[in-house]
Amino acid sequence: MQLADVALAGAAVGAALVLALAVVLAAQAWYVVRTVPKLPPAEGADHGFVAQADRKPGAPARELRVLMLGDSVVEGTGIVGSHEDAFSGHVARALARRLGCDVRWVCAGKSGSTAATLRTEVLPRAKERAAILGRVDLVAMSVGVNDALRGWTSADFAAELSQLVGEVHAAWPDAHITLSGKPAITHFPALPVPLCLALDWRVGRVFGAARRVVEGATSGRGASYAWVALEDALPRPGETAFLADGFHPGGSVLRAIADAIASRAAAAGVMDG
């Protein structure tokens, strides 16, 4: 057998394996889409206030004003209760604890949002709702997973995210920014192997681009970047890591994300101005 024959045989086997894998991934994706339940968003007011718990009598009040902006995580998809029980409430409480201040917040989120639709559909509403804050000190963003699931390349996503970050800065030039980091897709109960591995690779590329865009765009402007891996979000007694759809984060994961955002906000000195 000639080396050329070996190469051709290897290529044929490789092509067959790739085709077989593609069929498996397509079948698993179809099954997930058909079986994962569609959960409603959190209910109630899209704004709130958290008071500093340990302020001494007579001490002056310090207040941080925060806009939560993003996809289904910010919308509170699957949370049984209000936004106080969802991402926004967790972030506000974590900031109040970590920074030792009152936190006044507004949230604007929409399930399924990509960087592009967040900019064109959600951001205009966020600008209107944020007016009740008077000013915005911190913008806590969640975006990227839907871009990856829709198959956008990291370059396409980087371009869209750059536009989004630019418009956020234009609207609130003195605000700090955090962008929640890549979730560990391989831990999502709703996603079987090998689909979760393929999606984890794709999401990783998109969030790698996100980190470079945000850190580069905000360099020198005082903004910060928050990254939390799902491996660090361990369930606490009485809480669950995922909601009923096996896809969206539950209380313990939201708390871990919130703690990471608060940590990055403290490191960036959001209350030092």
Automatic annotation (TrEMBL):
A family per Pfam: Lipase_GDSL_2
Superkingdom, taxonomy of origin: Eukaryota
InterPro entries reported in the protein's UniProt record: SGNH_hydro (IPR013830), SGNH_hydro_sf (IPR036514)
Residues annotated as domain SGNH hydrolase-type esterase: 69-250
UniProt-listed Gene3D superfamilies: SGNH hydrolase
Protein name according to UniProt: SGNH hydrolase-type esterase domain-containing protein
